Amino acid sequence: MLDSLDQAISLTAPAKINLALHVTGQRDDGYHLLDSLVVFAGFGDKITVKRANADSFHLSGPYGDGLPADSSNLVLKARDRLRAEFPDEAFPVAINLDKHLPIASGIGGGSSDAASTLKALVSLWCIRIDPARLNNIGLSLGADVPMCLHGRPVVARGIGEELEKVATVPRLPMVLVNDGNAISTPQVFNALKKRNNTGLPAIPELKNIADVCAYLEQTKNHLFAATAELLPEIVETIDALNSTSPLLARMSGSGATCFAIYDNDEAASAAASHLRKTYPSWFVIETHSAEEGH
User: Fold this and answer.
1) Between the N and C ends of the chain, which has fewer C-beta atoms within 10 Å?
2) Which residue range(s) make up the domain with 274?
């Protein structure tokens, strides 16, 4: 509970990383069925909300210029959807989105922004809401929003809304890389050659980083081939990560962001430093998977 309704609330909207992503089918309405092991990074956008005399929305950060500041933005859709559910509690708010994640890059930036907006406004507006109802509001905004509301390691099934908590996932030192190319998720799904793949193998106890990588070697990102067909440069991104000797390198989501997992933070930092020097125009961040949501 807030000490003062004038207090600003700031939340990190962390990058969503699909460690593994299997496409297992397609519904009659066109949505694809997935089986994905998801973690969230310790790096992301930042949402700040504060009481105001009138609603306002401001974009900042290195990728803020690439987003619309109108009602098509998921942040404002989240505000308006929650206000429609709780009109008596919802006073005007000033919202700032400090955008640090590349746009249309397969790491759930928009969905994570929407989820953090919902959580921040629930707190600011002092709304009492059942988690299931909040999840349904999130799902109305996008299939990835419920997992971003959860913000912890999960297996996501269905269209992404069926969430199963993973008992333990150790902290994973990582590097995220994006070469600046955006890719449309619907385009990638349309380019898929096979949609009825097997689901993820059962997840064993993951005690350490080696356990995670051993498990991931048994899995894939089924979207990679389709993305590579549409965006051949994604292969160079994977090759660049592999040149830094990670334990594993893979594309997240539908791309174009790729990630690599390392033995320790020092190795991840050294890899990121090398990649920044070699590809100065690329988005390169050393981070880690977070046990808890932000």
Assistant:
1) N
2) 173-290
> Tokens 């106890």 correspond to what residue?
205
- Does 119 participate in catalysis according to the annotation? no
Q: Residue 38 carries which side chain, given as an amino acid letter?
A: V
Same domain, 77 and 216: no
- Per-residue pLDDT tens digits for 40-52: 999 999 999 999 9
Planar angle of CA 147, 41, 293, nearest 5 degrees: 50
Residues 218 and 145 in one domain: no
DSSP secondary structure string, 240-275?
HHHTT--SEEEE-TTSS-EEEE-SSHHHHHHHHHHH
Whether 212 and 139 map to the same domain: the answer is no
Does 159 lie in the same domain as 179? no
Q: Is the dihedral of CA 1, 116, 176, 158 positive or negative?
A: positive
> Which is catalytic among the residues 6, 16, 77, 194?
16
16 included as an active-site residue: yes
Residue 94 exposed, middle or buried by CB count within 10 Å (0-12, 13-18, 19+):
middle
* Gyration radius of the chain over CA positions: 19
Residue 3 lies in a domain: no
CATH number for the domain spanning 98: value is 3.30.230.10
Instruction: Please state the pTM of the whole predicted model.
Output: 0.94
Q: What is the pLDDT of residue 15?
A: 97
Query: Band of the pLDDT at 256, cuts 50, 70, 90?
Result: very high
Catalytic site residue from 35, 45, 98, 144: 144
Is residue 137 within a helix (H) or strand (E), and if so which, with residue range?
helix 131-141
Q: pLDDT digits over 167-216, tens only?
A: 889 999 999 999 999 888 889 999 999 999 999 999 999 999 999 999 99
